[in-house]
Each structure stands twice: as structure tokens, then as C-alpha cells.
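Teaching note: in complex prediction, the entire set of molecules is handled at once rather than each chain in isolation. The prompt given to students was simply: 'Predict the structure of this complex.' The entities are:
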Amino acid sequence: MSGGMRGAGVWRREAPVERVAVAMERWTPPAGRGGPFEIEVRTGKPLDVLAFKGTDLGEVRDYAAFLKRSAQALYGEEAELETLASCPACDAAQPVLEEAFRVFGVAYHQCPACGHGFVGRRPSAAAFARHFAASDDHAAIYTDSEAAERRIARIVAPKLDWVLDLFRRHLGRAPATALDIGAGGGHFVAAARRAGIGCDGFELAEGSRRFARETFGIALDNADFRAAPAQPVDLVTFWGLLEYIPAPRQFLRAARARLQPGRGMLVVEVPRLEAAGTLAQIAHPEGVARHMDPSSHINCFSDSGLFSALVDTGFRPVAAWYFGMDAYELLVQCALVAGEDALVARLAHAIPLLQAGFDHGRLCDDIIVAAVPVE
Ligand SMILES: [Zn+2]
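The expected output is the structure of the full assembly:
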């Protein structure tokens, strides 16, 4: 990371000094973006990460090697890469791309205004779309049918509960309809339907759509969400979507077009750049097997960049939830570098304690933001 001072695009916040599980905070955007906004901030989320990831680093090594080959194939033709002229998050002009670090030889850049991280020289959107449509391997780690119900119970259900509680308190009722964009294997769509919500999903990867069909009996739409007919819905969700998207503001505008002020809510989950788990990957790029993979994750967000993107596209942020898998990631990268795979199991007991510290200190690699549309 360059460590340079961030400037004109940085938000400010008034927040409790000490650890508080849920707090109302006042967030003030950079000049010209209205506000301040009252944000309900929650930190920390218990998760038995090893129940999902295990302690075997063989899979991590194999997946990192696969991602490296994918990146080399995608970025191999230098002449076919496009250069970004503006920040994908805050839209500030980028007359000179500021290189922050490299993963698998691919440069990530950082916006001098808001701190958003992005791959500034990248394949065309069409090349990415082809890559994803065929990416059964990418989908594979999310589509183990034996783990589907466990994934819903432990990962999806707590997030759905958080969303339904916020929706009820801000809009006075439960959402009747929802759309999940980048629905993966359909886990959220399935959970939402079980909760009585008329929920549909969009997903481009054929392998994921097949999984949703076979596991949940759910038909996901493979159309471009931006171009599909914009019927209004109560709730739109982007779970781990915008980091893959060349132009995330377009997706936020498309979500805004489907939501009505006083009736709708948008929920966005993205990986965070200023996070222990992200920095652990950057410090050992050969071991990247999570969200710092340039063959898929071309964005890694600053909070300022994400919040500015929401405000610019017609939303008022109302809540944020900070949590992550940083302690696990840090252990994994240490074990890979040391060649001591047993480290992960030996230090597993420390993961919840360390993670709570990263979450409350906002050095965690995940954030979910809820926002409502404004006139
Ligand atoms: Zn920016």
C-alpha cells in the first residue's frame, strides 16, 4: 500500500471511543454530498470459520495457484487492457493511476480522493463477462450441496435477520418482494423465500444457476440486471457483488431504479481494503485465495468510496455492520509463508478473540451497508 494521505473524498464520523456492540454514529460526507447521516453501526459477528474453511492448507494452495493462472490468462494480453479514467467508487478523475500493490503481478491502484482500491488496467467488461459465464471453478467453492443448509443457517440467516429488523424499523413492515443480484448458488433467495418474501435472483455463472436449480429448485435469471425490465421491489441485495463489477455505480443506479422512496431498501456487502485480512493477502500475494484475486475481484472498497457511491446514486445510508475473517486469513498466510500448516489448528482457539478485536477496531475485511432511496 502506498500509505499516502487521502484527501477530498474522505468521510468523517463521530463514533464511540470504546467498544460498543451497536451505536448510532454521525457520518459526514465530503463537501457537495449532503448529510450528515445518522448511521446505526454494529461491529462483530461470531462465526466458526474453521467449520467452513477447515485447517487443511492444501486446498488454499491449489486455489491460489488456480487464481494465479486465471489472472495470467486474463491479463496476459497487455495491448487489450483498458485504462480507467475515474474512480469506480467516488468517480474522482484519475489523471495518473496511483499503484498501491500487486497480486499475481497485476497492479491494484488506489484513489487519492477516497482510498478505494481497484485494478486500473484491466480486461474489457465483455472479457470479464465471458470469463464469469464460464467460471464453474469459481462457483465450485460455494456450491457444495452438502454444505448448503449449513451455509444458510450460519452465514445467510444472521444477515437476513439483520436486514429484516432494519427494514421493519425504517419502513414499518416486512419486505414483500426482493431481488438478489449476483445470487451465486441461490442461498439467499432460498432463505428469503422461506421467510415469506417473494424473492428472485440474477446470476451469470451457469454452474451456480445449475446448483440453485438442483439444490433449491430455484431458477435464477441470467439476464443483465441493468437491462432487465425494472419492476419495483421492496428490497435489493448485492451480497459480495460490487467487488466483481467493472462499473459498480451502474449497478447502484439500476438498483435505485427499482426502489421507491419510503418503500424500499438496498443492502450491499463488499470486502474492505483497510483490513487485517486484506493486508495479510497483500503482504503475501502468492497465497491469495480470497478477496484480493485480480482475476475476479477488481474492486476493494474504502468506507468513504462505498458511501459516496451510494449517496451519488440516490441513496441515504442508514446502517453498517463490520465483521470479517481476518484472524483466520492472517493465520493462513503466516502458515503458508512458514511452511507450517499445523499453525492454523494450533492457534485456532485465538481466532474468535482476535477477530472481535479486528471487528471492533474496524480493521475487518467485510462490511454490509443498508441504504434507502431518496427522491
Ligand atoms: Zn475514489
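Point out the following to students. The chain has 13 helices and 15 strands. The first helix runs from residue 49 to 53.
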